[in-house]
Design a protein that fits this description.
CATH superfamily: BolA-like
Shape: globular
Structural class: alpha+beta
Radius of gyration: 12 Å
Oligomer: single chain
Number of helices: 4
Number of strands: 3
CATH topology: GMP Synthetase, Chain A, domain 3
Strand order of the largest sheet: 1-2-3
Largest sheet: 3 strands, mixed
Number of domains: 1
Order of helices and strands: HEEHHEH
Helix content: 40-55%
CATH class: Alpha Beta
Length: 81
């Protein structure tokens, strides 16, 4: 799987305001900004992203995914100088 493919899989199931994906083909890092995260704890946000990957996590197509998840408001606050 490529970074573009993984990005597409996540974006197809989770509306994202911002999505960065990088990795080596098995170990991935992502920054995900979505209004879907409003009111959710970090673990709930991660579970929502894992749900978009479905069997890809179970069959080891995506071995590991480290992620930072933000609401649009949280992301905007981080972008302030």
């Amino acid at each position: 799987m490529t970074a573009d493919e993984l990005r597409s899989v996540i974006a197809a199931s989770l509306p994202c305001d911002h999505l960065e994906v990088d990795g080596d083909g098995r170990h991935w890092q992502a920054v995900i900004v979505s209004a879907e995260f409003d009111g959710l704890r970090r673990i709930q946000r991660h579970q929502k992203v894992y749900a978009t990957l479905g069997a890809r996590m179970q069959n080891d197509e995506v071995h590991a995914l480290s992620m930072q998840t933000f609401t649009p408001q949280e992301w905007a606050a981080l972008q302030q100088p």
